[in-house]
Design goal:
CATH topology: Spore Coat Polysaccharide Biosynthesis Protein SpsA, Chain A
Number of helices: 8
Strand content: 15-25%
Distance between the termini: 50 Å
CATH architecture: Alpha-Beta Complex
Largest sheet: 7 strands, mixed
Number of strands: 16
Helix content: 25-40%
Order of helices and strands: HEHHEHEEHEEEEEEEEHEEHHEE
Radius of gyration: 18 Å
Length: 283
């Protein structure tokens, strides 16, 4: 599937089964105002997922960016995603660093929307910290639960941008895509354990340094196909989402969550898109 040429037709064809972000327009990378090369860092534990998502994306195929793929099948090379990112970043050639799941597909107009959104954000907050596609809104004055906000498609549903538009500040960004500038001084914590809650850690590190985290209007598609190539129409068809119900997953998740809760105990409580952080179990 060559999505840059056929994405719109494909999206229309599956609209009743899975809604995808619509294309506004599509310019080649070299013709996009304010465009700059990016270093993408991707941990790879299933090359089939990578081939069906990242590697069919136009922003990969045109060759204008640096892509650092770190093979980590069975977590044999790294037991910490944060350490993987830190060590891969030593090979990064560009200031703008994006950390992306292997099962993210970038629509053909993603770069055009990205750089327009970055220019807009820089005008509002030149010292922005971390950006992404999805996140948890700040706590509400009335004490109600803040919503998840952003613009993306996942097996749960298509998440349209909110009425007030984007960018919007968030507490914590979802980890499907996280970006920041190396010149900001931000970096992942190499002592962070496991493969969860590193989005919380980097957003809280940004907050501690006086920088804010934002969702911007550069929508992506998450978990579109199974590794075997079947369209994922709803969450139950994703083996990774189904795996989150197991005790082993929960134990590994809480190990990461407790690390963040201990490190940022003064900021508790805070919320990610799927978890409310409270004092660590051993606190």
């Amino acid at each position: 599937m060559r999505f840059p040429r056929r994405y719109a037709k494909f999206a229309r064809g599956i609209a009743r089964r899975r809604r995808l972000p619509p294309i506004q327009s599509h310019r080649p990378f070299a013709a996009i105002p304010n465009a700059e090369p990016i270093t993408f860092i991707v941990a790879v534990d299933d090359p089939r997922e990578l081939r069906r998502h990242v590697l069919v994306s136009d922003c990969y195929r045109h060759g204008g960016h640096q892509w650092l793929f770190v093979e980590n099948r069975g977590n044999r090379a790294y037991s910490s995603i944060s350490r993987l990112y830190v060590e891969a970043a030593r090979r990064a050639a560009h200031d703008l660093r994006f950390h992306v799941h292997q099962d993210v597909l970038f629509p053909p107009d993603w770069e055009q929307r990205l750089f327009a959104a970055l220019a807009d954000l820089a005008g509002r907050d030149p010292q922005w910290g971390v950006i992404g596609a999805a996140g948890r809104a700040p706590e509400r004055p009335d004490g109600g639960e803040p919503p998840n906000v952003g613009h993306w498609s996942d097996p749960h549903r298509y998440h349209a941008p909110p009425r007030e538009g984007l960018p919007l500040e968030v507490q914590i960004l979802d980890e499907l895509w996280l970006g920041f500038r190396a010149s900001s001084g931000l970096s992942f914590d190499p002592e962070h354990p496991g493969f969860h809650c590193y989005g919380a850690e980097i957003c809280l590190a940004a907050r501690k340094s006086g920088r804010r985290s934002y969702v911007i209007d550069a929508p992506i598609v998450h978990k579109l196909f199974t590794p075997g190539g079947t369209l994922i129409e709803e969450s139950g068809q994703s083996h990774k989402i189904a795996g989150r119900r197991g005790d082993a997953f929960r134990a590994d998740f809480l190990r990461s969550a407790d690390h963040v809760a201990r490190k940022y105990a003064r900021d508790l409580p805070f919320r990610s898109t799927c978890h409310v952080f409270t004092p660590a179990r051993d606190a």
